[in-house]
Amino acid sequence: MPSYSFEKKHTTTALTTITLILSAYSTLRYLVFGKAINENDPFDVGLTPFTGSIIIVFLYWMVMFLFQALFIIRYFVSEEREHEDPRQSKAFLASNHFMAFNTITFFWTILFGKGYYFFAELLAIANFLNITSLIIIHKTYITSQFSDYFLIHVSTAALPFSWLLYLIFWNGAAVFRSSTGLIARILANIFIWNFLFVPVLFIVFFGDWAIGLSSSLLMFGLGIGQIATKVFALQWIFAFIISGILALFSLIAFVGYGTSFMVTIEREERAPLLSEEA
């Protein structure tokens, strides 16, 4: 194995680890504990129509960070793949977008936590394009092993994509200081359906149940956050409806994915036997 592969793999291990730590640190410091630092609760932000439940969002982040840590351990630290050429690995290809995602997230949390919403929105959009390109170019949703789907696609693509899609609207509402006013609520009642249409497109065309399921969780969190803000409103009702529909579609796609995956494995196992019989 060329020394390039060995050195490149260990460099990638260090960079992915550092960027993940920075992202997790800034998220906790400037968002979760932001009020204690700036006397300004980032999860208030004028109580926008896209402000969700801090508990659900926090759990979402923890799951995402856990999956990303497992991604690093599995593909860059584990000795099991020590001799795998990183240039041919989908995990290695995804790692560049992974590092970009966490680096941008690090700076976004600082800007958002300090109230620089416009510049934070620009970073959110850039990060969304980064993850979208990862999915489209490298097709992380296509894997030969079930574990690779979880540790590569879910950790580096699906969870970040759903989060960034939600973030663009939440951050955008903060930019325009959207509150619980009538006009803001009407626009929010329209824009919220993007959280149904976009994930459904990924489910239908790519069978990507992970994006659907993660978006469903965020919509559930949005529903909880909005019902605590304004009980007599449509936003939380729409959020729960979207969450339920996405959960159903994702479950159907997951069953289909699991079935096709098992059929593929069975064919691969039978192939040597058929060749011997021939």
UniProtKB/TrEMBL annotation:
PANTHER family in UniProt: DUF1774-DOMAIN-CONTAINING PROTEIN, EXPRESSED PROTEIN
Protein name (record): ATP synthase F0 subunit 6
Transmembrane residue ranges: 12-32, 52-77, 89-110, 116-137, 149-170, 182-202, 209-228, 234-257
Keywords: Membrane, Transmembrane, Transmembrane helix
Cleaved signal peptide residues: none
